[in-house]
Recover the amino acids of this structure.
């Protein structure tokens, strides 16, 4: 049965990829990438996939990138956005971008750890203190190291990181105020070994599931809840079916903007530079709007009758640290050294002044500080 399910999932991804490739003369992997000519001037139609709704900050970033590219190329670089997992979940989207059926996508490092296992170090529970802290590390030398590794291993380029923040627990049964409140909850958790281990250690029935299936699974009682940031919870209308949201701050979730490397390299130099500049500006815009959207999301939750809680993270930490940290170190080549490097970089970011002092208003109001430091 397991083999059959795996085959069906793979078949779905390949079928979508084949269908998308069939509608164009050239896939991005060929270097042509839907290239046409208008009055003798090359034009490109670019497929951009992501799994969140059109009300999400991820979609606003995609729209800003689309508009900047349209304006700066005089309509020659046309981005068509496929939101809400229309082309499949994040894993399927990444397979599509690798084979050239999709040109660009947004995905999280927890999903991409299926291709680059070292990415799981970013998933270590209670690693970062605030979202500013995590973003500073991802936008520094360690994030650049991971981006190079992704490109080398998969042929997919990361253009930078979005400002998503922490994933918090929501559910339809009870508020989470202490570790024992998590015991027995069946939560949708990202299909990632470190996430699954961390939540299982906290007593959760950790259940991987495509994001697009979460709402109906909550409605039908297949799951009790899941984990997401406040904006994702509201933009996907999960507050309609889950009335408890707790700022647990267990995991920080790096999200990255991706582009197919053969397509990117086949672009003329001026267009590549325009892609880089527009991506950087769209990512900065996303970070700006995400902070206000988080505040708005919290107000929307309150107005919709969602009970908000902000548990002290300190009682949660012993269930996962150093146990889960040690397990990951054992799974990765030179895992201890790799985690030590990341912790050192995180500590340097705090010294530079990025940490609790950089906490945005939504986190200052609703989120406690999460413990950080070494595995010891």
């Amino acid at each position: 049965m397991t083999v059959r399910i795996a085959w069906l999932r793979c078949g779905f991804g390949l079928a979508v990829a084949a269908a998308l490739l069939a509608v164009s003369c050239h896939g991005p992997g060929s270097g042509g990438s839907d290239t046409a000519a208008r009055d003798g001037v090359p034009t490109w139609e670019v497929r951009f996939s992501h799994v969140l709704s059109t009300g999400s900050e991820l979609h606003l970033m995609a729209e800003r990138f689309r508009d900047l590219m349209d304006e700066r190329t005089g309509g020659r670089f046309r981005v068509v956005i496929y939101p809400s997992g229309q082309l499949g979940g994040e894993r399927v989207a990444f397979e599509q971008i690798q084979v050239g059926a999709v040109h660009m996508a947004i995905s999280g490092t927890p999903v991409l750890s299926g291709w680059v296992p070292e990415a799981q170090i970013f998933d270590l529970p209670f690693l970062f203190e605030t979202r500013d802290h995590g973003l500073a590390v991802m936008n520094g030398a360690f994030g650049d190291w991971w981006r190079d590794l992704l490109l080398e291993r998969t042929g997919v380029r990361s253009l930078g990181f979005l400002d998503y923040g922490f994933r918090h627990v929501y559910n339809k049964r009870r508020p989470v105020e202490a570790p024992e409140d998590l015991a027995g909850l069946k939560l949708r958790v990202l299909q990632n070994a470190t996430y699954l281990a961390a939540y299982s250690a906290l007593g959760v029935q950790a259940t991987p599931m495509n994001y697009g299936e979460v709402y109906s699974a909550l409605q039908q009682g297949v799951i009790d809840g899941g984990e997401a940031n406040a904006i994702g919870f509201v933009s996907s209308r999960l507050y309609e079916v889950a009335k408890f949201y707790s700022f647990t701050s267990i995991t920080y979730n790096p999200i990255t903007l991706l582009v197919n490397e053969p397509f990117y390299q086949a672009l003329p130099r001026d267009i590549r530079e325009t892609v880089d500049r527009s991506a950087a500006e769209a990512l900065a815009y996303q970070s700006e709007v995400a902070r206000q959207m988080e505040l708005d999301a919290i107000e929307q939750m309150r107005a919709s009758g969602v009970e908000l809680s902000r548990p002290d993270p300190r009682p949660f930490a012993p269930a996962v640290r150093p146990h889960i940290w040690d397990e990951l170190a054992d799974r990765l080549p030179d895992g201890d050294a790799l985690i030590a490097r990341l912790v050192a970089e995180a500590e340097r970011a705090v010294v530079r002044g990025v940490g609790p002092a950089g906490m945005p208003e939504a986190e200052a109001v609703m989120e406690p500080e999460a413990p950080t430091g070494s595995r010891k």
